[in-house]
Design goal:
The chain is globular, with a radius of gyration of 15 Å. 13% of the residues are buried. A hairpin with a 5-residue loop joins strand 3 and strand 4. It is an alpha+beta fold.
């Protein structure tokens, strides 16, 4: 299932589908798989979510978060960032639920790659 989720995220990244359709497809995959056994994967939990924002104004951001903290931080942090005028433009189009789903599915590599019209770039990796 991890490969299918990665393909869906890649299709979204290429603009073939939007975030809503990607989330719907991932949900369908999850339903199809049915209840799964929890497998302990300490290696995955030791990975890092890396967020890179490069602004054309040189307001760059580099954030590294252990996967263990991501779930809570993404939910709380996105709401906070979306309410701050200076950061709102960077996070308003991020689908946090899709990122959380990628983490739950143990997807690795680049999961988000956004370039705005004025050259701002957002990239999110799990490594």
């Amino acid at each position: 299932m991890k490969d299918e989720v990665a393909r869906i995220l890649s299709m979204m990244e290429q603009g073939k589908i939007d975030a809503d359709k990607a989330a719907e497809l991932i949900s369908l995959l999850k339903e199809k798989e049915g209840p799964s056994k929890k497998v302990s994967s300490s290696n995955y939990m030791d990975k890092t979510l890396k967020i890179r924002i490069q602004s054309h104004d040189n307001d760059n951001v580099n954030v590294n978060l252990p996967i263990r903290l991501c779930h809570a931080v993404l939910k709380a942090g996105h709401g906070i960032a979306a309410s701050l005028p200076d950061s709102k433009k960077y996070v308003q189009d991020l689908d946090v639920d899709l990122i959380l789903e990628a983490i739950d599915q143990k997807v690795e590599g680049q999961i988000v790659d956004i370039t705005s019209g004025d050259g701002d770039k957002v990239a999110i990796f799990i490594e």
